[in-house]
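Board notes (copied after class):
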Amino acid sequence: MPNSPAGEAEIGAEAEIGSGRTVWLASFPKSGNTWVRAVITALGTHQHLFGVNQLDAGWQPHHVGAAVPIFGLDPRWLDAPEIDRLRTALILREDAARPTGDAPPLFRKTHETYRSADGSGDPFPTAATRAAILIVRDPRQVACSYAPFFGKSLDESIDLLGTEETREATSPAMMRSAQPWGSWSSHAASWTDDSVPFPVRVVRYEDLSRDPLGTLFPVLRWAGLAVTEAEVGEAIRVAGFERLRESEAEQGFRERGRKTQTFFRQGSVDSWRAELSTDQVLAIEADHSEQMVSLGYHLTSTTEQRQSVTAVRASQRRQRRHDWLHLPDRMGIEVVEEDVPEILDGAQRPRPWIQVTPSRAVVRFTGGAALMVADGRRVSVSWQPDPEAPDDDPSWLVQGWGVTLAMLQRGDLSLHAATVRIGAATVAIAGNRGAGKSTTSMGLRARGHELLIDDVTLIELREGRAWTTPYSRNVHLLADAAASFALEFDALPRLAGGRAKVAFRPEDPAEVPHLIDRIIVLDPTPAAAGVTMTEAHGSQRLAALVAHTRRDGVAPLVLGEQRYFELLAELADSVPVFVVRRPRAEWTLENVLDLIEGAVAAPQTRRPGDLG
């Protein structure tokens, strides 16, 4: 393993020390980078002149303002790819401007994840790089320092440590390239991956705190700094934590955040034990257990405890990325919040709460919410959160009813079905409300298959084939279903409108067309003696699909009875249809999953066009 924690006998066995000058001081924010830089600064500074605002190795690579005096080029006139190329050029130029003879290493701070070169530039040019020192700190302690520095609560801080989004995007106006931090785990993983083309030495903050000289001296020597043990020891004394706090109190600190009162807060390694609740510790360990163990951090929770919250936390992060009012741009559906008319003139009512014309539809829901879909292009939503449950999830209004009605108005069917990718096959799992579509699709997901979408499978019929393009939406689960997949029901958002289900967001699917290979209809039947699967033939296929395409009687009214039947027949003639019957009680999900996987594995015995 070329990139290994400090203290191992051989570091960088496969990645040789580079020919450049730069030694990257890499760290996730609030992990001890500043203290290491302070020691390096103290090595070349008289103790009476040392202060926090004279720290060396502070220039971060994403700042490209130096291009103005060096190249006479104003970055504010550039676009993002040009900013990236300028960043690389500045790093290479500074490396090339080395003094004659053996040049000392040039230490350069970064909070970014490691990335290799792409078409725009090389964020960490190998030609300019000697090595990297990765400073890591227990994420439980990082969370405690991160919160006051960025003006966040502890819970917000913990969430951010588990979030992958770039913290700072490319900004020509600010003369900066992108600065992706990743999560605490992905940051460490990026720098310790074997693909990094230069050696990386890992230094734990806790080891620096426990034995600063024994930890730092060999690392600085390895990085090419010609210093003695005595010199490093004196620098550690000069740049001690209390000295840094005193200097900040006297002079202020230019790197202190706008929301931070004190940069050098405690320097602690285990104050998290008193600052974090048990649930907060569990959340951090659930997010980062793999990297924590690999870096030698002891976990306080069991595998079972972590599993109970890991999936829920991942779902919560995905949900935060999606505005419930927004649908994919490719759909061309505008969603707005506005009043919905009480009466739709000339409408038919397939259900008391639904009004339909060929180009308009109004649906009213328990709790006062309503939506109107017009011309397949605009969804109007009238909704107010319940003051007693303001965090309930209203996304089902738009992602379910809104999308379904819009596609019908455009002339396309939708199937009341979840869709799962099983190997190379795409399988739609249809059923009435309560048939177990979500539970079945989640069970297949637990077996390693890809859950594309729950509840709404859009159908596009082309040349005798049925295609579907998934879009990101939640899976809706009852309490017993959530428990069966080790999901904490009360930690997930409840569906708005007083519904008894919660919203779980699985992995966001790639929004590309999939050819549907099988349709499986779930048919709970009180008279069933066991779990069975049969293939429907001829008109049986039509009968099996009618209940799952009518959409509460709306589809025939919007499409017209004749066009609806034509599309239904074309769908039934395009895809093999299987029916799974099971008792309503005393049945096993695993039996259903086995049958579905078996049906997918079996070769198709029919071709499109054999509808009898």
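Comment from the instructor: DSSP finds 20 helices and 23 strands in the chain. The first helix runs from residue 33 to 43.
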